[in-house]
Amino acid sequence: MKLQCIRCGTQFSINPIRSHCAKCGGTLEYVADLPAVDAVNFCGLQGLWRYKQLLPAVQHVVSLGEGGTPLHKADRLAKAVGLKTLYLKDETRSPTNSYRDRAASLLTSNALDLGFKALVSASNGNMGASLAAYCAKAGLICHVIVPKVVDVGKLAQMLAYDAIIEEKGDIVDDSICRARAEAEETGWYQATAELNPYVVEAQKTIAYEIFEQFGVPEWLLVPMGSGGTIYSLWKGFKELKQLDLISELPKMVGIQPEGCASIVNFVNLGNLGSEKVCSGATRALAILVGEPLQSDLAVKAVSESNGLALTVSDPEIFAAELQIAKLEGVFAEPASSTTAAALKKLMEEGTIPKDSSAVCLITGSGLKATDVLQAITKKQKTAGLGLEISTKQKILGILSREDAYGYDLWKQLGKIVTRAAVYQHLNELAEKGLIAGYEANGRRFFKITEHGKRALAAFDDLKLLM
Ligand SMILES: [Zn+2]
After folding, report:
1. What is the Cα–Cα distance from 335 to 245, expressed in whole angstroms?
2. What is the distance in A from the centroid of ligand 1 to the CA of 23?
3. Of the candidates 296, 313, 388, 463, which lies 20 to 30 Å from 261 by C-alpha distance?
């Protein structure tokens, strides 16, 4: 086992841990000989450590029950976007509700083996929350360096698990620089995801699980921040192929928010670093990264797999977040929701054929994200008003498709309110000029006006902001 530069191939010893090539600056990858095909045996254990034969060896396993997350068949979401087969890999079900628990388990185990007492990690939130929990379990001291803007749910986790939190920089890039310096200065274990090659090793187990739960999807959609995660899954599938367990590989689809898209720009235009492509304008905080340190890994995953990279806007991300929750009962954080937003786009464009199979990686829980928590609290306060508005909105929605009369509308609404309330809503909508009544076949019909159509469109926009 050794560390090898993915760009120039130079090899380094496994310790001390380092992330980038001293010769060319390329990202270093952990490489080890795979076991003989007939020696691979996943039987027995559950979760991450089921795959210990394919992971770096550790003596002191720190575990909170990571890995082994469900793969949900998402038929309603599939139907909504027009795809035949869709699955959600639900990492929200991890011990601290994000996929980073896999990495935290392996890294804290490794730190214990090497005799460290403390570790340091720069993080946008999820990695910090995971490491804080695993350090608590292992009795290690956990230093987390976070940027100014970080999701409150993740911060609450770090505080609860008793991490020492330091704020550095506007975005995580600055925090990473600080973590690099702190580890060198203090001798703490370097547990920053971008600076520790073991992270990819832990995360590649997500691919093994997808293979065991379903097989190989034709398309695998993964959010991109620093670029390491998409490569982790790609590496996992490549190893399964080397082991002759599969014959096909998925096409990797990497997604970034529009406000922060340097990897996508590089894949599509070839100009990484030549201009500032991160305006910091996204609320998908988990993937708000200025200059991704592992972009070479992400580019390798996309190009080797004949995949693609694309951006989605914040409104598209939040619409997708609501859609995943409403249709599949999975509450994903904004960064994870980029996958469903991208899928919708690719289906509409015809890039992904209707009869394909796809898996969206849901990296973390919506409960961790600031905006969503605020929106939900706000909604509870206005729940009464909310129902009234949503009934009017539903009436406008029905009338935008066809004219209808009162009793018919009441039935179409699913009889959720009284008939008297429906007539009251109709009167109010007519007074505001959003609908107009007319007589036909002895009944009073209603139709939507131009003004009403605009109001309906505004409702849809508003929902994304609430
Ligand atoms: Zn190199």
Report:
1. 31
2. 5
3. 463
**Cα–Cα dist 86/78, whole Å:** 6
pLDDT of the residue at 287: 84
pLDDT by residue (tens digit) across 206-262? 999 999 999 999 999 999 999 999 999 999 999 999 999 999 999 999 999 998 898
> Angle of helix 383-401 relative to helix 370-381, nearest 10 degrees?
90
Report the amino acid identity of residue 314.
D
Quote the ligand 1 centre to 28 CA distance (angstroms): 8
CA of 296 to the centre of ligand 1 (A): 11
Q: How far is the CA of 5 from the centre of ligand 1 (A)?
A: 5
Residue 110 falls inside a structural domain: no
The domain in which residue 430 lies consists of 382-465
The answer to whether residue 214 is domain-embedded is yes
* Ligand 1 midpoint to CA 11 (Å): 8
192 CA to centre of ligand 1 in angstroms: 20
Query: Total domain count for the chain?
Result: 2
Please report which residue ranges of 188-333 form alpha helices under DSSP H.
198-203, 205-213, 228-242, 262-269, 295-304, 314-328
Q: 431 with 368, same domain?
A: no
The tokens for 68 are: 């082994």
Q: How much distance in Å is there from the Cα of 140 to the middle of ligand 1?
A: 33
What's the gap in Å between 94 CA and the centre of ligand 1? 34
In a domain, 312, yes or no: yes
Q: Domain ends where: 350, 375, 400?
A: 375
Q: Is there a single domain that holds both residue 311 and residue 447?
A: no
pLDDT for position 320: 96
Whether pLDDT at 330 is above 70: yes
Rounded Cα gap, residues 64 and 75, in angstroms: 31
Confidence of residue 382 (pLDDT cuts 50, 70, 90): very low
Lowest average pLDDT, out of 382-386, 393-397, 423-427, goes to 382-386
Same domain for 316 and 230 = yes
Statement to judge: residues 371 and 423 lie in one domain: no
CA of 463 to the centre of ligand 1 (A): 48
Residue at 40 is within a domain: no
